[in-house]
Amino acid sequence: MRFLLVEDNPELSASVVDRLSLDGHAVDAARDLSAAEDYLASTDYDLILLDIMLPDGDGRDFLTRHRRDNRRTPVIVVTARSEISDRVGVLDLGADDYITKPFDFSELQARCRAVLRRHDGNARNEKQVGDASLDLLAGTLSVAGIPKPLRNRELRLAEVFFAAPERIFSKSHLMDRLFSYDEDVSENAIEVYVGRLRKKLEGGNVQIETVRGLGYRLVAEV
Question: Starting at the edge strand that comes first in sequence, how are the strands of the sheet with 140-143 ordered?
Answer without folding.
Answer: 126-129, 132-135, 140-143, 146-149
